[in-house]
Amino acid sequence: MSGFGPCDLFLADCPARLAVELIADKWTVVVLAGLSEGPVRHGELIKLIGGISRKMLTQTLRRLEAHGLIRRHTYAEAPPRVEYELTPLGATLIEPIHTLTEWARANGDAVLDALDAHSEPVAHSG
Predict the structure, then answer these.
(1) What are 18-41's pLDDT values in tens digits?
(2) How is residue 81 annotated by DSSP?
(3) Nearest CA-CA partner of 28 in 105, 108, 94, 112
C-alpha cells in the first residue's frame, strides 16, 4: 500500500503526480517564494531570483498561471504595468516551501560534504 491516497503517484495521469512534477521544476519554488510577500513585477522577480533568464521566468510564470498558482494583473497605464501574485491555491505552498528552505539551510553543508566524499577517488586494494 503506497499511502498516497486514491491515486498512485507513480501513475502518469495521477493529479497528485502532476502537481508534484509542477513544484519539482527547477524554478517553480523560487518564483513562488519570490511572490510570497505580495505582488511583484517581472523585472523585480529577475532581481530577486539569481540566475534565471527573462525567457525562463516568463515561461515559469505562464505555467504557474495556467495551473492556478499565480495571477497576472495588467494595469491600464502607459506604459502598461504587469504584476504577478499568488492565488489562494498558490499561497498554500508557502509553508511547505518555507519548511523545505529551512531543511536546505540546516542540511546544505552535509549534502555538499556527501557529494565531495562521493566524488573523491576510491583507493582499491589489490
Answers:
(1) 788 888 888 999 999 999 999 999
(2) E
(3) 94
